[in-house]
């Protein structure tokens, strides 16, 4: 019997367990998931909404046989998206999946709903709640898990770290730790009650999906949740000390955090300031990431999936998708090795090499998005990235061949600059006619 320990009962760890349990080797593996949370309902934050991608997250959902259950909560209309600037100028308003060959639907699902689907798909008895891993310890030629309460379990044939950004399993493989991504902010939620008579307008700005607005190194973003409420965040390029000071002194203090945000967003139109006033349950959110191209030396009996393997900021929507793809590949790797009676360690090492190669692509994409979204002249540079990505996905890579000589990026930048300038002028005229911007205070 092959013994496998999975640290972390998040989407990635649960996906791996589900895939192995429904595989042809299910009777030959003994799987245990160790989770630090006290229970399935004790998480501090339910998280936001996720868009699952066809070749990764959705592929895993289908392989697990959970497509019908997933569709009960998936929101295909959630692909609606607006990209704006501080003046409220709408540059892009996508109402559904782009009718472009190469692009498929990426439905939204609340993270908490995805977790429910996955938790219901695995036996309760394989999850050990309230088991916070302290470290992975080597004993002989195998590994054990040591927990915060001092107890030890194992040894195991394979320990898979699906335990997120600060993975304890990764510590046994490398000394590299996540670093501050240079972006931080304040997140919260908006509902009809907290927004009052401004709800219809605030809700209309987001529609059925998302509103992503960027200017001068700052953003105001809101996502529609499954229950109709909005998940909002206000990120910016700032020193880590700024957000750490806020966390230490004001985390959870809505009034204090709103005052800070209103000062930082004083040049933004009143519409976005109304988001700030209406937001509740605010918390400080510094972002972290691992270096692009980060590698670790393979060690027998250990491996990683998801953020533990390739932590990145959320600006390409690849985190959970990439993690579920890891689980998809690792489960297939383990199944094949056991079925063909080949060496498991060699198979796991080959899996890691494939993830190293794959992760460079989406970590680089995330880094480029982060850089352009939070550039001083944002959102203009980001639109060049969008056009380039669409061209590449549809077989017209603008960086190769004769197309590389076309000034596409500069043209896109110029057009967007004119749109933005017109939007700024329109705002000034509107403000003059109104006398001044609406005064907003907490």
From TrEMBL:
InterPro entries (UniProt xref): FAD-bd, FAD/NAD-bd_sf
Domain (FAD-binding) ranges: 3-173, 303-353
Transmembrane feature ranges: none
Keyword Flavoprotein applies: yes
Gene3D superfamilies membership: FAD/NAD(P)-binding domain
Signal peptide residue numbers: 1-17
PANTHER family recorded: FAD DEPENDENT OXIDOREDUCTASE DOMAIN-CONTAINING PROTEIN (PTHR46972:SF1), MONOOXYGENASE ASQM-RELATED (PTHR46972)
Protein name: FAD-binding domain-containing protein
């Amino acid at each position: 019997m092959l013994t496998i320990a999975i640290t972390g009962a998040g989407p990635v760890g649960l996906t791996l367990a589900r895939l192995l349990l429904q595989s042809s080797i299910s009777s030959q593996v003994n799987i245990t998931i160790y989770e630090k949370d006290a229970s399935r309902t004790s998480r501090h934050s339910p998280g936001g909404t996720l868009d699952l991608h066809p070749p990764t997250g959705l592929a895993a959902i289908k392989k697990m046989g959970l497509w019908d259950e997933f569709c009960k909560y998936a929101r295909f209309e959630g692909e609606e998206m607006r990209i704006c600037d501080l003046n409220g100028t709408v540059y892009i308003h996508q109402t559904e999946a782009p009718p472009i060959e190469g692009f498929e639907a990426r439905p939204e699902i609340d993270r908490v709903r995805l977790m429910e689907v996955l938790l219901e798909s695995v036996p309760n008895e394989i999850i050990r709640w309230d088991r916070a891993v302290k470290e992975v310890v080597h004993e002989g030629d195998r590994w054990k898990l040591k927990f915060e309460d001092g107890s030890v379990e194992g040894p195991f044939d394979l320990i898979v770290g699906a335990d997120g950004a600060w993975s304890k399993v990764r510590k046994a493989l490398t000394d590299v730790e996540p670093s501050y991504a240079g972006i931080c902010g304040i997140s919260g939620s908006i509902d009809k009650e907290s927004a009052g008579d401004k709800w219809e307008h605030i809700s209309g700005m987001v529609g059925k999906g998302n509103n992503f607005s960027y200017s001068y190194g700052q953003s105001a973003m809101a996502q529609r949740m499954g229950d109709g409420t909005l998940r909002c965040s206000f990120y910016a390029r700032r020193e880590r000390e700024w957000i750490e000071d806020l966390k230490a002194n004001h985390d959870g203090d809505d009034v204090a955090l709103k005052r800070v945000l209103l000062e930082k967003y004083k040049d933004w139109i009143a519409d976005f300031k109304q988001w700030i006033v209406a937001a509740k349950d605010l918390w400080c959110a510094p972002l972290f990431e691992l270096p692009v191209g980060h590698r670790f030396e393979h060690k027998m009996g250990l491996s990683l999936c998801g953020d533990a393997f390739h932590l990145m900021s959320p600006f390409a929507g690849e985190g959970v998708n990439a993690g579920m793809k890891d689980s998809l590949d690792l489960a297939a790797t383990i199944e094949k090795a056991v079925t063909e009676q080949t060496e498991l360690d060699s198979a796991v090492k080959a899996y890691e090499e494939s993830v190293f190669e794959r992760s460079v692509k989406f970590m680089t994409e995330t880094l480029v998005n982060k850089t352009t979204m939070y550039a001083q002249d944002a959102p203009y540079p980001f639109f060049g990235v969008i056009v380039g990505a669409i061209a590449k996905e549809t077989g017209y890579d603008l960086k190769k061949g004769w197309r590389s000589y076309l000034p596409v990026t500069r043209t896109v930048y110029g057009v967007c600059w004119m749109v933005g300038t017109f939007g700024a002028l329109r705002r000034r005229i509107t403000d003059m006619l109104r006398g001044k911007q609406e005064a907003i205070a907490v």
